[in-house]
Amino acid sequence: MTDYADFFRQPVLRSHIQYEALRAYFVGGLSAREAADQFGYSYGSFKNLCVAFRKNPNHTFFWPKPEARKDKPEDPRPARIRALREAHQASIYQIADLLKEEGLSASTAYIHNQLSAAGYPKLSRRTATERSVRTLKAVRADRRALNLAPRKFTTSFGGLFLFAFDLARINMDKVFRGLPGSALILTGCAIRSMLALKLWGIGRPSQVMAETLDPGLALFAGLNVIPKRSTLSEYTGRCDPHFTEALMHRWYYAAAELEADPSPGRSFDLDFHTIPYHGDQALLEKHYVSKRSRRQRGILTVLARDIDARIFCYADTTVRKATQKDAALEFVTYWSRLTGQSPVELVFDSGFTTHKTLGELDERNIKFITLRRRHPSLMAHIQSIPKNQWRPITLTNISRKYRRPSIVDEQADLAAYPRPIRQILVKGLGHLQPTVLITNQEKISPVKLVDRYARRMVIENVISDAIDFFHIDALSAAVPMKINVDVQLTVIASVLYRLLGRRIGDGFEVAEARTLFRRLIPKRADIRLTDTHIEVTFPRRAHNPHLIKANYHRLEQPIPWLDNKILKINFA
After folding, report:
1. What local confidence, expressed as pLDDT, does residue 538 receive?
2. Where are the chain's structural domains?
3. Confidence at residue 63, expressed as pLDDT on a 0 to 100 scale
């Protein structure tokens, strides 16, 4: 009986000690200090215990409390060790030296255990001289050295494989036929390497050296390692500039096959964008750079945006000052040759073309909306119009502060235009001077015409997105006149992001690429290669439910450039 009594007199469990101490205080008549001394508490700790019990005077107070989970930050060393062995066949001593330089110290025993656990075989025995020289020689990109054997690794570019589903559904070898390639780096591998940088928002190939060791980035491209920056920077300079139109043709048809509605576009926004060049290149002309509000040397680029598909569908970097006024007709010719029919409507700024060209567009039965420059005689005419002739309208399809402007719908004569043209004067749009629209669309209401031109301003936001995220101004070509393929890759990347946004829905179909990347594209992922599958597992993220709702976890797609292994997405 004494042994059983000692169990209660000398409690061991924490909850039992709390129970006996509180019972002695509340029932046994001991003071707080006496109870604290008897059961090993400090006076302050025991008073805090009493306060906590008074807040929860229940038997659940003595239940064992679950220990708070302490999530330790992920140790970056294992992934880095595997990357160094995978890309460079580095020994454990070389890996230890590199980790030390990067501030990630690890013993050779730790490195050996990590490599053994990952299933890497031992390197062949080296001579004493080779072991004493611990220099690391970079492995060159070689398609033939791609390792698709069953294994596991972690990548920081897991989100790229969301785009692999669409790329695998098109015939990339056909689309990019004629671009440079070699036995080591096939054309498709080179294009996927550069496209991966665009999709990830990396500005220049010169900034990619920190990522060349990532095995996931190399796997997406279909190589053992990503090509070095010298190869990527020189690639577009090796491309024939005249090949761009054929590339645009083939990409358009390939992208149309991915669309639910592959019908050709009808209405387009056109705009100029000057890609600035900061070097000394005498062949380059000076053009206006809106971002800097000045003229400087650069490459004048014409961009066309499909208003319904909300994507760039045309880019031409061969425009010169002598031919820029014909840019609209060049696009019409290109689109007619591509689709077999002319565009229905073009919307562009006042400086895009001339009044003579507007007459040629009208002869081809192509509708247009543009601005008219406010010369002094036109301003005098506007000032002479009585107030009672200005009619208020309400804009409905756009979200803006100034939604009730006033208009005057009239006819005007242009010097080089063959007949009177419809002119709409607009006041109350938030500008100091009235806006002057001219169009050959006679039967459309002024509200729809003003609204349609206001929507043209979206192309400037899209170009801004191309500058900020796709880095269209940070070109990879060392030769500034050979940037055609680089700009075309920007168009391709924007299309892939738009397809992603449409598949996700929930408002992401109109989001900018940088927003889609920030919210939807997972960075880290665990990749598992089997004999038949490539399984990409994303960790828990707040926006993963959007990807799950889009059924990415149910998609299975053979990847042609990875021996037709089936790509599958998993979510932790």
Report:
1. 92
2. 2-62, 77-137, 144-241+479-571
3. 73
